[in-house]
Amino acid sequence: MPEMRFSQSVSARLDGGVLVVTINNPPVNVLSAHVRAGLIAALDHAADAPNIVGLVISGTGRAFIGGADIKEFGKPPVVPMLPQVIDRIEAFEKPTICAVNGVALGGGCEVVLACHGRIAGEAASFGLPEVKLGIVPGAGGTQRLPRLIGTVAAIDLIGTGRAVKAGEAVALGLADAVAADPLAAAVTAVRDNAGGALRRTGNIDVPAADPEAVSAAEAKVIARSRGQSAPAEAVRLVKAAAGLSLEQGLAEERATFLRLRDSEESAALRHVFFAERAAGKVEALADIAPRPIETVGIVGTGLMGSGIAVSALTSGYRVIALEQTPEAAESGRERIAGILDKAVQSRRMTAEGREACLARLEATAEIKALETTDLVVEAVFDDLSVKTELFRRLDGIVAPGAILATNTSYLNPDAIATATADPSRVVGLHFFSPANVMRLVEVVDCARTAPEVLASVLAFVKRLGKLAIICGVTEGFIGNRVFSAYRREAEFMLEDGALPQEIDAALEGYGFPMGIFAVNDMAGLEIAWARRKRLAATRDPAVRYVEIADRLCEAGRLGRKNGLGWYAYPDGARTVDPAVTAVIEAARAEKNIAPRAFTKDEIIARLLKAMVEEGTALLAEGVAARPGDIDLVMINGYGFPAHKGGPMFSVGQNTEGTI
Ligand code: T1G
């Protein structure tokens, strides 16, 4: 049967009376204007052809439909608009069934919801991730999903933007069945439905829901939304579906969608989306094949090393964890097993998954065991002589093609690399703690790192499911440099008249999960104190220096773990401590500073300015490649609210061509 073409991306063939429509719009089949037009043309054709009994809609490649084209946002609309296409599918007089071969996200999921039947392939996943872009579904998702899966489950899915795999989709009622060959199953389903009554989602009543369960689902969404408006709006629309006609519900949804699409919150989250896609991409590496990495050595199984080990194990790597003594190796193994146990307890992992991970783990005190590794990540005490000695030994043991990575936070990886005969195989991998949870990894491109080594560790970080930000060598890398600048500014404000609780309240109001002083207390104050003491001898006395943090440490206030830091923690609860206020007031008096009041906006403006100045310096030095990279580091490593886009975005510095 010859192929029929309805647009540049939509084609079809006839399979015994069933028109099998295929969308091919690489890389992820977004709903570009020609896809929408092609679908309408296919429906027109099928409506008029007496020999066609119904349609199957499917995608090619890894996606069914990845959603609306986010790059079209803000551009003049082109007909046919997506809601039109979707209404036409639902109202279509012949059975129209989707064969979901891969991801069906956003508008793609809305196409799925409008079909008369839904067959999932084994690689299918379904989601309405619009809230992650600061918007709500704009083509019926909030109204049709609750009709299929009920209000409570719809609040969870739409409010969080979480995607579900084929099995869960069937269990929820979002898909009818999973099939190894979804196309064939969908063709059969069309034939079975031909001439019969069609199940149109819009005609289904939203099933009655337990009001308490609805409130609980709503509360859960709101609790994690950190002041963003889209999740609350999405919940409102889902709840409204039960009491409105489809038409009224769609009108309300559309109006909300258009309003949010033009919001700053959505512009910021779209910036983050495209910044993530741009991160870790280096044109010069485009043609370089990464080296295969299967076995990863991890030196040190403390908090950081065990987190990295878990991350590697759960991503399918073999791990050889090295410690100094057999006893330490055994407790390292136990620490790793303990983290995996917790994952099983919280149902993030199956017991079999845990066993499979442990079967790939070897914990040893024999450095020779690292002979077979393709990559070694060092996570030992952050001391230059310890690390250089380790690299010297590793250099003599691992195979010549293997990569050596240091997880140092503050040391110069170039200095560590000099301990090896081949510094081109040395790279920095700066994980954030806890490394099995935190997504961010600063990949430090050292002076001598070979392009192939860089390409290989980027692929490694990607397989860990983490976000790689490439960074040049500098003290503290991107994150700690920006963080230090912003912390310095926060401490200047303390001296100038603000109190820690006022600065923290401003940051939390802006969307940080925790203010900077509360964060410092949680991390502990002594590491930064030790660093300040180390740097004291070389500090320029003409540069402003705030001594308040030193005074607190000298008074034994080392943060949350000893119950006293910038705050006091009686019974674990953060409370303002007059003793800290007294230290601050004494420091002001000593420098003859007359304190003045700060508004929340002023506090935020000063902190943003400090971050942006440091970010601008990092760009000028070539340490960071793009403003968006700095934004991603601050969002993923330091709690900067994603819906504000990051410090660079917040002052109008955008990654080119994203919105
Ligand atoms: N629009 C435009 N470009 C997109 C895109 C999209 N929706 N999704 C992906 N891309 C580009 C991406 O920039 C990259 O480009 C390439 O595709 C591969 O992406 C009306 C309003 C689909 C799971 O939010 O989650 O529908 O860098 O590297 O890891 O209600 O992309 O190669 O030039 O991420 O295989 C809702 C977002 C839209 C889906 C594939 N949809 N995308 O992951 O590849 S709003 C989304 C993803 C909407 C309706 C509303 C992922 C993916 P380049 P990739 P991947």
- Rg (C-alpha, Å): 28 Å
Q: What is the total tally of β strands?
A: 19
The global form is: globular
Beta fraction: 5-15%
User: Structural class of the helices, strands and pairings?
Assistant: alpha/beta
CATH class type of the largest domain = Alpha Beta
What's the architecture of the largest domain, going by CATH? Answer: Alpha-Beta Complex
Offer a quick outline of the entry.
The protein is an alpha/beta fold. 47% of the residues lie in helices and 12% in strands. Residues 27-28, 30, 62-63, 66-71, 82, 103, 105-107, 110, 129-130, 133, 135, 137-139, 141, 277 line the site of (2S,3S)-3-hydroxy-2-methylbutanoyl-COA.
Features:
659 residues, alpha/beta, 2-enoyl-CoA Hydratase, Chain A, domain 1, Rossmann fold, N-(1-d-carboxylethyl)-l-norvaline Dehydrogenase, domain 2, 3 domains, seven-stranded mixed beta sheet, binds (2S,3S)-3-hydroxy-2-methylbutanoyl-COA
Give structural notes.
It is a single chain. This protein has 659 residues and is α/β, with parallel strands linked by helices. It has 3 domains: 259 residues, 2-enoyl-CoA Hydratase, Chain A, domain 1 (Alpha-Beta Complex); 179 residues, Rossmann fold (3-Layer(aba) Sandwich), CATH 3.40.50; 144 residues, N-(1-d-carboxylethyl)-l-norvaline Dehydrogenase, domain 2, CATH 1.10.1040. It is 47% helix and 12% strand. The protein has 26 helices and 19 strands. The protein has an 8-stranded mixed β-sheet, sandwiched between helices. A 7-stranded mixed β-sheet has the order 1-2-3-4-6-8-11, sandwiched between helices. Strands 5-7-9-10 form a 4-stranded mixed β-sheet. α1 runs parallel beside α2, α5 runs antiparallel to α9 and α12 packs across α13. The C terminus is likely disordered. The structure holds (2S,3S)-3-hydroxy-2-methylbutanoyl-COA (T1G). The site of (2S,3S)-3-hydroxy-2-methylbutanoyl-COA (T1G) has 26 residues, from β7 and α3.
